[in-house]
Write a structure and sequence with these properties.
Structural class of chain B: alpha+beta
Radius of gyration of chain A: 23 Å
Shape of chain A: globular
Shape of chain B: elongated
Strand order of the largest sheet of chain A: 1-2-3
Low-confidence stretches of chain B: none
Mean pLDDT of chain A: 80
Distance between the termini of chain A: 40 Å
Low-confidence stretches of chain A: 284-295, 303-335
Number of helices of chain B: 4
Order of helices and strands of chain B: HEHEEHEEH
Order of helices and strands of chain A: EEEHHHHHEEHHHHHHHEEEHHH
Oligomer: heterodimer
Largest interface: A-B, 32 and 27 residues
Helix content of chain B: 10-25%
Helix content of chain A: 40-55%
Mean pLDDT of chain B: 83
Number of strands of chain A: 8
Largest sheet of chain A: 3 strands, antiparallel
Distance between the termini of chain B: 88 Å
Strand content of chain B: 15-25%
Structural class of chain A: alpha+beta
Largest sheet of chain B: 3 strands, antiparallel
Number of helices of chain A: 15
Chain lengths: 409, 122
């Protein structure tokens, strides 16, 4: 049988992201899929070498527009871990609230796009109308709709007043009602089921072996969620991961739909339990002016020698005197510049996000390595595509919620 | 088969969710980070905003007393407003109007006098 190679993307009507797939098809069946990435690479990881660690918060937020808050949260948690900063409880709860608002709007955006991918434009409009409420909450509380810029090292920049909390609760109640009205359509409609049930099946074993994360993993029957590690205030709030067992596009859609409702519950709970107190720690030295101070001529030579020596032998500075601190905390008294390394994980709407941070005692981070959920979800996607029909490719590709700007940074 | 009928009927009965944009403008919430404004008379040219700006769009010359902002590079994060010691920077809640060419805000102020000069003037 004759084989045809079909380029799918990077510009394609149903793809919101520039993912290029080279599909080998026999008649109408896909036999092989090869991805090509690198269309939107921006070199943000390299930028950490010239921007200082406080400026990096705004830069990592721009890795991805949809989950900007969670990128900043992950980065800040990492730097706080390196510097041994204790975040106030109120700040943790506020981070949770904004993180969950981001999850809601990301899932609603995806549900709309998914409906659009199988040609249900009316449903797409319905979901995006609900999303607009969440965006309004974001604008009223953070000062912007998408890139909220609320996280700083040691806490958050904005606070919620009691009136705002009440207003958010009202808005969330209306959104919940509106989302529930759409549940029968997205989960029980004949046309939706016809396009999604049994398409792009990822078995439980495959999901584990290929390292799927997020709704992909939970759609295949694994109850794993990075929020279970208890970052921000999740350790105190408690929740059960949403799990579906079929592993097809419908299961992933159901996971995301139910997670939206779950995010509303968590946000509501966090608002109800919001403790009083400060919203940011005053870290000694961390927020001080970073302008270089004049150094005497002899002293400068010593510094340069020490710097070159360190660079050559990769010698890190002497360990802190009190060694009975828990792992991850460098010193109880925080100095201005991060030194040490940390790995942090948070649950993005798309799955697990991982940051590796390395500070060398200067104001720039030596290394910021970002592992995004889409990067982990591309191998499972390539395993799902062979055997499907060409018409189902958009639905299957969208079911992983691809975010190529995340993947390439 | 008719799962969405209720929604469709409700949508037909209720008023439109969108608005006629150029005629009806939504406006922004209090605290929206719209346009960066500098009151150069109160500026002491301490360069905090220039140092903290993540997109490096602000340039401050403390000798000449100039405050410059590359508007097209600004990411509207509001960090400069937070760090400004004299609160001469602020953000209004209106968007900057659409522009067809590169814009730069150039403000000329009075530079801070050195202590010696101040003493000499007195």
């Amino acid at each position: 049988m004759a084989r045809t190679i079909l380029p799918f993307g990077p510009q394609h009507p149903v793809l919101p992201e520039p993912l290029h797939l080279k599909l080998t098809i026999e008649d109408e069946t896909v036999v092989e899929a090869l991805p090509t990435l690198g269309y939107v690479h921006r070199g943000l990881e390299k930028l950490c070498e010239v921007r200082d660690f406080n400026q990096m918060i705004q830069i990592v937020e721009r890795v991805c527009g949809i989950c900007s808050c969670l990128h900043a949260l992950c980065y800040c948690e990492g730097v706080e871990q390196i510097m041994g900063v204790e975040v106030p409880r109120r700040a943790k709860y506020l981070r949770t609230i904004w993180g969950e608002l981001h999850r809601m709007h990301s899932h609603l955006l995806w549900l709309g796009l998914f409906a659009d991918a199988f040609g249900f434009e009316s449903l797409f409009m319905q979901f995006w109308r609900v999303r607009e409420r969440i965006m309004d909450i974001m604008e009223a509380t953070c000062g912007n709709r998408v890139v909220v810029s609320v996280n700083v090292i040691g806490g958050v920049r904005r606070d919620l007043s009691p009136e705002q909390c009440q207003w958010i609760e009202e808005q969330l109640a209306v959104s919940e009602k509106e989302i529930k009205q759409l549940s029968t359509t997205i989960l029980n409609d004949y046309t939706v089921k016809k396009r999604t049930v049994g398409k792009g099946v990822l078995t439980k074993e495959q999901a584990y072996q290929l390292g799927a994360v997020g709704p992909m993993l939970r759609g295949s029957g694994w109850a794993q969620d990075a929020r279970q590690t208890g970052y921000a205030a999740f350790g105190e709030l408690g929740f059960d991961p949403v799990v579906e067992y079929d592993g097809d596009s419908y299961a992933r859609c159901a996971v995301r739909f139910r997670e939206t409702l779950q995010a509303i519950d968590i946000a509501r709970l966090a608002i109800a339990r919001l403790p009083a107190g400060e919203t940011a720690t005053n870290v000694e030295g961390a927020m001080e002016d970073d302008t270089p101070k004049p150094v005497a001529a002899g002293e400068r030579r010593d510094i340069m020698q020490a710097y070159n020596r360190d660079k050559r032998h990769r010698v890190t500075a002497a360990p802190p005197p009190n060694l009975d601190l828990p792992a991850g905390l460098v010193a109880a008294k925080v100095k201005g510049k991060p030194e040490g390394e940390a790995v942090t994980r948070v649950e993005q709407p798309r799955g697990e996000l991982m940051y590796y941070l390395k500070g060398n005692g200067s104001k720039n981070m030596e290394r910021v390595r970002i592992r995004t959920p889409t990067f982990a979800n591309i191998p499972p996607l390539l395993a799902m595509l062979p055997g499907c029909e060409l018409a189902d490719v958009p639905v299957i590709v969208l079911s992983i919620d691809p975010c190529i700007s995340c993947t390439e940074r | 088969m008719f799962n969405m009928t209720k929604n469709v009927v409700t949508n037909l009965m209720t008023k439109s969710s969108t608005r006629l944009y150029p005629i009806a403008v939504r406006g922004h919430f209090e605290g929206f980070r719209g346009t960066l404004v500098c009151n150069v008379d109160e500026c002491i040219f301490c360069r905090s905003c220039m140092i903290k700006c993540p997109s490096q769009c602000i340039t401050v010359d403390n000798k000449a007393g100039t405050w410059t902002c590359e508007v097209m590079s600004c990411v509207y994060c509001g960090v400069c407003v937070d760090v400004c010691p004299t609160s001469c920077l602020s953000m209004t809640k209106e968007h900057r109007p659409v522009a067809t060419e590169r814009q730069t805000i150039f403000l000329q102020g009075v530079p801070k006098k050195k202590k010696k000069e101040e003493a000499a003037a007195e």
